[in-house]
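Justification of resources, computational component.

The compute hours requested in this renewal are based largely on the per-chain cost of generating structure records like the one below. Each record pairs the submitted sequence with a full structure-token output. That output is archived, and it is also reused by downstream analysis tasks.
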Amino acid sequence: MTRAVVLAYHNVGVRCLRVLLAHGVEVPLVVTHADSPGENIWFDSVAAVAARHDLPCCMADDVNDDEHVRRVRECAPDFIFSFYYRRMISPRLLDLARRGAYNMHGSLLPRYRGRAPVNWAVLHGERETGATLHRMVEKPDAGDIVAQQAVPILPDDTALEVFHKVTVAAEMTLDRVLPALLAGSAEHRPQDLAAGSYFGGRSAEDGRIDWRRCGADIHNLVRAVAPPYPGAFCDLAAGRLAVLRTVPQPRRPARGARAGLYVEDGRLLADCTDGMVLWLENATLDGHPLDAAVFAARFAQARVALV
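The structure output for this chain reads:
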């Protein structure tokens, strides 16, 4: 029986671990993360799946330390799989996989290598992304591609909605190629890294809206960081405005050349500097819901400037 050590976290980790088990792969060790304090845990637990299947499971602060390397070596794995595991894996650990170490990445490599690939793809207005299974090498997300599955990004999809699609794409990708990978017949295709791009992690502050940008950029930012991610925001004199969902209004003319917030036809609207009008379908002010009625009652002026 093929043996695989699995490093996994998040929904992709859950689904791909279950694919391995469905194909009869023996998993002598699962390595996952303890949930970070203060993080919004909206996703499924790899540790819970491991417990359900009586799989040995540990939570490693540093999977590359001597103790965890020893544990993996004792498992004598044919493969090591990384499924949305958040730490870099050292070459000495990768080398313990007799038949190779593989990672599932949430983009169509070589595009969007690195961190938060779904959020970056939505932010840049991409119309598709997907999942890629690739061989792990020392350089992140740079090894040979084994299989990919594309998914569409619709113009109003949030990052969460796209992430759910990518999770299914990851499951489909692994399920489709795993028999060939286990048999040693899976094709490996080198990446052309020059044709792709690498992106770093994102912080809550990256959700700050610059109202000098065009309406499409603002709409894409809102989609890219919408809950359960920290959300897009800006600061008004009256408090912090969080913009959680926008809907472009292509048939509605802007009231002015400068960015501004106002109510029209029962909707809370924002003019952008390029003339696009956005409906703020879901917004809060200092954590309290802000809709057209609340705005009209709260603000005496007809239009609030946005910067």
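The chain is about 25% helix and 30% strand. The chain has two domains: 3-199, 209-305.
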